[in-house]
């Protein structure tokens, strides 16, 4: 009852929404893409083709691009800043649009001509290979299909704020565990002692964090403490159930294409 009065679940949900963007500790917006429509899906993608302004359309962030059922290329360049540490986790964040049908648009990403991963509206992040070094320039090409755009109900796609980012793994790990613990708590009866212990643990974990906006280095310094508090609290919430969980899934497009 106490957690209902204090709206603990709703409070933790709001905290999650606040800190989610800070999984990316640093970010630099990518230069505008250049867009080229291909004739059909069997056309060999000109990955190494130089950009000719008369043939390629410039696509900036938050602008419209593409149309229904089109195969395309999107090209841009990126460079990891010299002041980013080599042991950081570099990634490309690529929200290139939402077609409103299934997972489109979808594309195979090439870095310097080498296929590395598939993206779609459910998979918008690509971890960069370890050999990507600060200070070096690299070419990014996306070869894909726009989708049906809700069977023609949408005229075009909208390019998001694509960026080169540094992932803060401790923050990502803490958020993932918080979501699991909160999800379990929200599905338990309000009088279940496990629910009470989980919400207590979540509340105590977030007390470690300095979430005064704008969040800065003080926030990151305490993430591991918050994570450890949550881990220990979960252990005290009850004994694990003696059950086996068997997960059945399927391969995603990045695995299928590569």
From TrEMBL:
This is Glycoside hydrolase family 38 N-terminal domain-containing protein.
């Amino acid at each position: 009852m106490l957690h209902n009065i204090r709206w603990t679940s709703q409070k933790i949900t709001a905290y999650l929404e606040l800190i989610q963007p800070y999984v990316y500790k640093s970010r630099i917006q990518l230069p505008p893409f250049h867009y080229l429509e291909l004739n059909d899906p069997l056309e060999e993608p000109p990955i190494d083709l130089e950009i000719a302004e008369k043939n390629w359309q410039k696509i900036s962030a938050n602008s419209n691009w593409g149309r229904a059922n089109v195969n395309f290329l999107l090209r841009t360049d990126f460079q990891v800043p010299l002041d980013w540490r080599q042991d950081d986790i570099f990634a490309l964040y690529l929200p290139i649009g939402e077609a409103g049908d299934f997972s489109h648009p979808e594309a195979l990403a090439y870095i310097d001509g080498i296929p590395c991963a598939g993206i779609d509206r459910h998979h918008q992040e690509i971890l960069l290979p370890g050999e990507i070094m600060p200070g070096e320039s690299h070419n990014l090409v996306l070869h894909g299909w726009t989708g049906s755009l809700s069977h023609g109900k949408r005229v075009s796609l909208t390019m998001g704020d694509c960026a080169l980012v540094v992932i803060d793994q401790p923050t990502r790990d803490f958020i993932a565990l918080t979501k699991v613990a909160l999800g379990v708590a929200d599905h338990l009866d309000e009088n279940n002692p496990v629910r009470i212990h989980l919400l207590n643990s979540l509340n105590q974990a977030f007390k470690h964090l300095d979430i005064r906006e704008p969040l800065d280095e003080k926030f990151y310094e305490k993430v591991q403490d918050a994570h450890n508090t949550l881990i220990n609290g979960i252990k005290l919430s009850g004994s694990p159930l003696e059950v086996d969980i068997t997960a059945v899934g399927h391969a995603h497009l990045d695995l299928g294409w590569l």
